[in-house]
Amino acid sequence: MGLPAMFDWNSVIREVVIGATKSDGGTRAVSYRIGGGTTLPFLEKTPKPPLIAFELCDSPQYWSPIITNYCGDVVNSPAEWAKTAGSAYGADIIRLYLTSTRQRNYSDFEAVKRTVELVLDATGLPLIIEGSNEPKIDSEVFLKCGEAGQGERLLLGTAEASRYRSIAAAALAYNHSLIAQSPIDINLAKQLNILLKEIGVPQDHIVIDPYTGTLGYGFEYSYSAMERIRFSALKGDTDLAMPMICSAVDSLSVKEVRDAEPGTRDTMAVAWEFYTGIAAAAAGAEIICVRHPDSIGKLKEAFRSLAHSKVPTGGD
Amino acid sequence: MRTVTFLPSYRKIDIERGKTILDAAQNAGLNMNVVCGGQGKCGKCIVYIQSGKTEFDRQKYLRFFTEEELAKGACLACQTTVQGDLQVFIPESSLIQEQKILIEHRDQKIDLRPSVRKFYVELQPPTLADPSPDLTRLLWGIQKNGGPAAEKIYVPLEVMREIPAILRHSDWKVTGTVGLVPGGYRLIDLQENDTAKRVYGAAVDLGSTTIVAYLWDLVEGKVVGVASNYNRQISCGEDILARVNYARKNGLVKLQSLAIESVNTALTTASDNAGIDREDIYEVVVAGNTVMTHMLLGIDPAYIIAEPYVPVVQRALSVAASRIGIACNRNCGLFAFPAVSDFIGGDIIADILACGMAGQEGVSLLIDIGTNFEVVLGNREWMFSCAGAAGPALEGGEVLFGMRANPGAIEKIVIDPETLIPSYSTINNLKPRGITGSGLIDLLAELFAACIIDRNGRIDTGIGNPRIRIGAHFPEYVVAWAKDTDINKDVVITENDIKNLIMSKASVHAACVTLMKEADVTRHDITAIYFAGAFGNYINKKNATIIGLIPEINPDQIRNIGNGAVTGANIALINRRERKTLDEIANRMAYIELNAEPSFMDEYTMSSFLPHTDLTLFPMVQKMLDACRIKRV
What we know:
The complex is a heterodimer. Chain A is of the alpha/beta class. Chain A is built from 10 helices and 10 strands.
């Protein structure tokens, strides 16, 4: 790049391993070692573009119709969907939302275990699993996920300051990593990491989710929080020296996408996801999550050109 | 008109239909607990209607009542209107009770240089050979007896008119009282015979909650009486804002007269205890916050509380006490401390005088904590100040079982780290009814040290202990079982209470850090921390550090100066020269508006953690944590 990258940085972002191949005791076809950065991603000598995680769920009735329409019948089987995400969409990671558990008095925890096992069988990609968001059942949900994915180095989500014990317990018991999410604030991010450290979660098992607002809908706050987190880490704050994950889920429900003509809605959705993703990557995110399959290829192309010092062409 | 009868006291009052029960109670002279100023926000004014017609939207305020209270027909006095003749039962918990107020006197070596002195003179009666006028004769006599030069003494007309009769009636043996007022010397009183030993002055701390008055013998230089009582304005709203709003709505007159009445009650109690005549009180020095001082003097405080927050007057004021109705000598002077800003008032200037930080080379941090807090950082060369809202949590508000320092309030707590059983002491050793601010600080520190809560203040519900449980809305820790209390309820602290406490302590700490950054000093540069305010006197210094209320320094350098406002007022009363520095201190002090300080929010978030996000700022706490964690594992 043309910038003289002179920063007073002397620290390294801690590496977190996601997914375990056979040699590491798992069944994944690939595993990733994310982090390790010493500066901003595209200023590295050998730039390491972010990984792209495709988000899917096991109960799609609340998923955006843009996505369910685009993906078709495959959405009714999380295993099939995960398989397609790897083979057809080109994702690096699968992020499975256990939306089936997000209902009143949910108690079928064996089903959770089954779903995770089916998805693991269907794809060789590493897995991120999102639980129920309900503290009362989350410990059970995470234990089942943890158990089903034992040895697979899953990334479990999402720990927050108000509820982190159950997910941390599952991560600790089965040697998984976890996502620590805080609401767009460097200090809150740091505090959560300290809380996790103090109950024994190793720091190389934590990925920071700084919370991502969609571009034009608050992303500038996320961007500056991410920038501060990363700069502090590179200056030596070990409590913040973790890789970051960004998921701009609101991209699919912003006004511009919602109100788009039916014929252009997919293009709009992809554009919104794409620009948010590229901005998050520039701020230092190691994993970018998307929901629209078309966003994956576009982001990859952009990352490639950024990494090779070419001017990215953006969407088309 | 409707008649409301209050039980159990059987006090009766007639009131217009449609007025609230709170209005009726206030008119009947009952001091009800209205933390929110009668807005239906605090739920502290619960009463039970025994008979009669009222209007009250119970559904709207359900959250304030237990099932048991609902079954008995509980309602909020401030939100219930009188529709017919009523019988209303007021439980003790809804009344303001006798409070533990700090009235300890601190010995300070201050030279006795009062601004009022008496001179006993025996004059030669006039003759044809010496026909000089009465006044000349009197003033010359005073000058000869060590008083100021005769031509420098101004004599007000009402005293002038009395001179001939008093001189002749007393056979020319009189005592003249000369006061030093801003315009110069003034003959403020003339009495028959020798009364020179009877010169008294009062130093008053005019707090928004309590009034404390010290009565001094200004000849001997000693305290002869002390009294304290509630600020009667509480019945118009607990906090300053509520009272200013009350004044806006209903006029200033009531609030001013309540303030005067409160001061007069304190002066009367003190002088009665000392066995002196209030006529012999010749000077009153008042230290109060900006709004209180305005209200006492009948100056409109409305512009202080809204942007751009401008007080009417900042400088020290000397006025005639009788003009505002203070019950003492008719020519008694009143000296009111100067203020710095809307929030840094005369009480803080008095704190500064009391702790002596304005004369020291080392940097001191002064913290006065109440619902609002004020922080001053500085030394003899410079000073920074700021003020903010700590929220009522540190005084027991917004905490389920928080209460003021009334009898039965838990004020000290220690938790056994093994059994998690607390031991506590209460005010007057009664069965517990609630927890005071200092008790809450202890509790927070002890919960933290025993690893019951994490650094974010979340209770670890995984700990198998009957005292740790999930309450109706939040996880909670049981401090006292119902059977051991005076209220037949388990006294608990909830996770929500803890959150409120952490927010309160975080704002105080963040304010300290903001001033330190402004002055470019670190905690290593601070040679002393002074806690002021009645609350400050009971704070456990170690626990205040453990929770991160204050920057960590050597605990030996932390001092509780107690009621600095009254100490400062005492100093200014007995040595008039000390007053000269006050306007200068007020002028020298830079006021930092925290809301306008971009880094404040960041500091606040960092401080919203136990003890702080950056543990390296709290090395002693870090050691303590490491030690107790090892013990637990």
